[in-house]
Every structure is written in C-alpha cells, then in structure tokens.
Design brief:
Blueprint lengths: L1 H41 L15 H7 L1 H11 L3 E6 L3 E6 L2 H8 L7 H4 L3 H4 L8 H11 L5 H4 L2 H20 L8 H17 L8 H22 L6 H6 L1 H29 L1 H8 L6 H7 L10 H32 L1 H15 L14 H13 L5 E5 L4 E2 L5 E2 L4 E5 H4 L19 H5 L15
Parallel strand pairs: 2-6
Antiparallel strand pairs: 1-2, 3-6, 4-5
GO cellular component, one term: endoplasmic reticulum membrane
Protein name: Cytochrome P450 4B1
GO molecular function: heme binding; iron ion binding; monooxygenase activity; oxidoreductase activity, acting on paired donors, with incorporation or reduction of molecular oxygen
C-alpha cells in the first residue's frame, strides 16, 4: 500500500513538474513573440533584405561573410536596414553619419542581447556597466589614462616591439612567408602584461602563454557566438563543445587575473615591497585600480577589480592586435606609402634608435596612414546600443524606446556618399584640409560619444 501511495505521489510530482515546465516554456515563447512583434513594428518604415523564416539574416551572413555582405546591403538600402539574428533579435543596422550622430552622441546603454555574452568572461566592467556604477568606474579609471601615466609606456611598447622584430628577422632568414598575426598578438599581450600587471622584461612565461591562448580562444569564440543565433541561448550554448571550451578558457583567464591581484595585494601589505612598487619607473594599471578611491573613500571590490582588468586585457589586446596587423598589411600592399612613413620616422629619429613620447605628435604622415588603415579595417567593426528614449533621424523616420541599434562601422567607413572611391587606400583623406569639411561621425573606428 505504501509503495502504491509513493508511486502515485511520484507520478503526481512528475505531472506537476512537467506542467510547470510547459507553462514556463509557453511564457518564454509568448514573451519572445511579443518582443519580436514590437521590434518588427518599430522597424516597419525601414525596408531591408529578405529574412529566412528561422535564421533571419544569420545564415546568409555566415555563408557569405558578414562584413562584405552588409556593405552590399548598404548599397541597396541607404541610411539603414533591419538586421535579424534568428527570429527574436532584430537591430536597426545603421551606417550613415547623421544616423550615427542621432544615437551615438547620447549615452544609451549597450544592448544586453549582445553584451551579456561577455559577462561570463569580463564580468560587469566599464564595457557593459550602465547608470551610476558606470559613472563611478569611469571616474575611478580616468587617472590611469593621464599623460603623465602614459608617457613612460612608450619605452615599454618599444621593448616589446623590438623583441617581436628580432623574432621576425630570424624568420625572414628562412626565405618563406609567415603569418604575423600571432606574433603581433604576443607582442600586444606582452606590452599589456607590463602595462597592466607590471610584468618584467623577460617576456611571457608559461603561465602568461597559457593566458594568451585563453584570451585568443575567448575572442574567437565570442565572435562565433555572435554570428550563430542558435548559440544565443545560454543553456543551449553551455551544452555545446564551443560553450564548454569557452567556460574552460574563462577559468584560465580568471585564475590568472585573480592570482596576479592576490600577489599584488600581498606585496602592498609588505612595507618594503610597497615602497618598491611606489618607486617604479611607471605605475601600471593594477597599481592605479588598487589605489583608486571614490568620493566616499571606497575602493573597488575584488569582483570589480577583476572585471576591469579582464575588460582592459580583452579590449586592449584584441583591438591592438587587429589594428597593427591590418596596418602592416596596408603598408606591405602600398610600398609608396610605406617609404614615405619610413622617411618621416628616420627624419624624426636622427641618430637615435628608439621613439620617445614627444616624437608621436610629429608623425603626421604615419598618423594619416594609420587612420586610413582604421577606416578600411576598423578594429571594432560593429557596436550595439539599446535606446533608453525615442530617437528621430535626419530623414524624419524614428524608433521608440527599447529599440536595438547596430552601428556597422565597417559599412559606414565604406559609405560612398561620404568617402569617394571607398575601397582605395588614400591617407590624404585625413589631411587637415580634408578632415575640416567632413562630418564628425563619418570616421568612428572605436565608436563615439560618452560610451
């Protein structure tokens, strides 16, 4: 009798649990459908490319390459068009300066539908924070970017670059081509490890190399997840091989950051070590974070410290590696511009063999070449916002509060109405006379505005 009662109770429990799960699934589906309807209605006045019934535009983008595909759509649909990742996430994709100004001159928060993917790795740092906490963190971090802090870093950059060039000299002797991207990535990480964590000049150790591989993995996996709508659901993603690999890499990155923070905090407890750190030839980013106090005298928590360090490492490493690699590609492709840059540098250096802070402002032609490289190959090709209030664009069309915006920087920089012959590498686009008459939101390699 007891076993029968237990069996009936168990059956009733399973039935209730099944019913509860079905209700939750139904509510989630209803929420997604209502949200889709709201997003679609908001973008009614913006024509765009046809969507797949399940994948939206994601499948076509994956098959043909997202950057050039969006540029081709930008030719068909001036100003903007809807962009759907699957059926439930839809952005208004913009690539026109006045449209960019209407949104990016404001302080709208990052679109959580995209930036929440970063949380497992970089936590709630400056990239994804919003509201009062964002202002607090920004204020605490601002001293880390003062000229007096940055000036000594030029020597650090030079040391890491020389190590990379020595490596390339050996490879060049083999008289065969080699991929520079990984070497540039190692150089960028080596520089960041010195500027962020105060690492010595002995290069990356085994633990640092493991960290480098983890950061490289996370960057690639993040891009794959953004472009694969089936990975947008956390529960599904963590069950896939890509998701598990992402979590393993996160653990490696977090362990590394946590250990460095623990070691630095322990060193600061020791008076001699504290004096040694304070007498260093330059403060590193971690020194500044550990010493930062708000108006109430409060310090960053351990979670906030890790979030800001991981954010800084991700943003500094990924964008720097991409920007330098594509710039070198452009210099190799256009030797006439490479020669002019070399002549300018040789003239500035004279008998010296290394760059100093005051030299940077004299590199006018090199700066124009870097900017033109950033125009063609922006290190951050696309950024996202969620409107905190309605916006009306220059042509009278508008979007309500809550709408999602994608600024496609790659397509903006190839907008033929702004940039004549946009595929041509022409550094003189950034001469003072040409810049003077250009829309201030036509060139946005790292986004724009208060965010």
């Amino acid at each position: 009798m007891g076993s029968l009662m237990f069996s009936l109770s168990l059956s009733r429990l399973v039935l209730w649990a099944s019913g509860f799960i079905l209700v939750l699934v139904f509510l989630k589906l209803a929420h997604l459908l209502l949200r889709r309807q709201k997003l679609a209605r908001a973008m009614d006045s913006f024509p765009g490319p046809p969507t797949h019934w399940l994948f939206g535009h994601a499948l076509e983008i994956q098959q043909t390459g997202s950057l050039d595909k969006v540029v081709s759509w930008a030719h068909q649909f001036p100003y903007a068009h809807p962009l759907w990742f699957g059926q439930f996430i839809g952005f208004l994709n913009i690539y026109e300066p006045d449209y960019a100004k209407a949104v990016y001159s404001r302080g709208d928060p990052k679109a959580s539908d995209v930036y929440d993917f970063f949380l497992q790795w970089i936590g709630r740092g400056l990239l994804v924070l919003e509201g009062p906490k964002w202002f607090q963190h920004r204020k605490l971090l601002t001293p880390g970017f003062h000229y007096d802090v940055l000036k000594p870093y030029v020597a650090v950059f030079a040391e890491s670059t020389c190590a990379m060039l020595d490596k390339w000299e050996k490879k060049a002797c083999e008289d065969k081509s080699f991929d520079i991207f990984c070497d540039v990535g190692h150089m960028a990480l080596d520089t960041l490890m010195k500027c962020t964590f105060g690492k010595g000049n002995s290069g990356l150790g085994h633990r640092d190399n493991t960290y480098y591989r983890a950061v490289s993995d996370l960057t690639l996996l993040m891009q794959q997840r953004l472009e694969s709508f089936q990975y947008h659901n956390d529960f599904i993603y963590w069950l896939t091989p890509h998701g598990r690999r992402f979590l393993r890499a996160c653990q490696v990155a977090h362990d590394h950051t946590d250990q460095v923070i623990r070691e630095r905090k322990a060193a600061l407890q020791n008076e001699k070590e504290r004096e040694k750190i304070q007498k260093k030839r330059h403060l590193d980013f971690l020194d500044i974070l550990l010493g930062a106090l708000d108006e109430n005298g409060s310090k960053l928590s351990d979670a906030d410290l890790r979030a800001e360090v991981d954010t800084f490492m991700f943003e500094g490493h990924d964008t720097t590696t991409s920007g330098i690699s594509w710039f070198l590609y452009c210099m190799a492709l256009y030797p006439e511009h490479q020669n002019r840059c070399r002549e300018e540098i040789c003239e500035i250096l004279g008998d010296r063999d290394t760059i100093q802070w005051d030299d940077l402002g004299k590199m006018t032609y090199l700066t124009m070449c870097i900017k033109e490289s950033f125009r063609l190959y922006p290190p951050v090709p696309q950024v996202y916002r969620q409107l905190s209030k309605p916006v009306t664009f220059v042509d009278g069309r508008s979007l309500p509060e809550g709408s999602l915006i994608s600024l496609h920087i790659y397509a903006l920089h190839r907008n033929g109405t702004v940039w004549p012959d946009p595929e041509v590498f022409d550094p003189l686009r950034f001469s003072p006379e040409n810049v003077a008459g250009r829309h201030p939101f036509a060139f946005m390699p790292f986004s724009a505005g208060p965010r």
